[in-house]
Design goal:
Helix content: under 10%
Distance between the termini: 48 Å
Radius of gyration: 17 Å
Number of strands: 8
Strand content: over 45%
Strand order of the largest sheet: 2-8-7-4-5
Order of helices and strands: EEEEEEEE
Number of helices: 0
Largest sheet: 5 strands, mixed
Structural class: mainly beta
């Protein structure tokens, strides 16, 4: 599960991501080419972990943020959740008519 508030807006957009990683080790890729956030687990790694992160998008575009839960077991497996952020350009001024 992953959501963002707001999910769209005028550049720049500062989004608050809220999600649930299925394990204590996870990666949050913001989808805009900036460094992703990585969390490594030390103990209780198989427990679900609440994820809350803030990220600012500074360029116009549509971005897919991806939360990947990394398996804590000896059998590697990953689970992903996605959400989309739309960043619009500043509207140009309309001349008076």
């Amino acid at each position: 599960m992953l959501g963002a508030t707001p999910s769209s807006g005028i550049v720049p957009v500062t989004a608050v991501f809220n999600g649930l990683a299925l394990t204590g080790s996870y990666t949050l890729d913001y989808g805009d080419g900036t460094p992703q956030f990585n969390a490594s687990c030390i103990e209780n790694c198989s427990l679900p972990t609440a994820v809350t992160k803030v990220h600012t998008y500074t360029s116009v575009g549509t971005y897919t943020a991806i939360l990947t839960s990394n398996s804590a077991s000896s059998t590697p497996s990953n689970r992903t959740a996605k959400t989309t952020i739309t960043v619009k350009e500043v509207p140009s001024s309309q001349p008076p008519q």
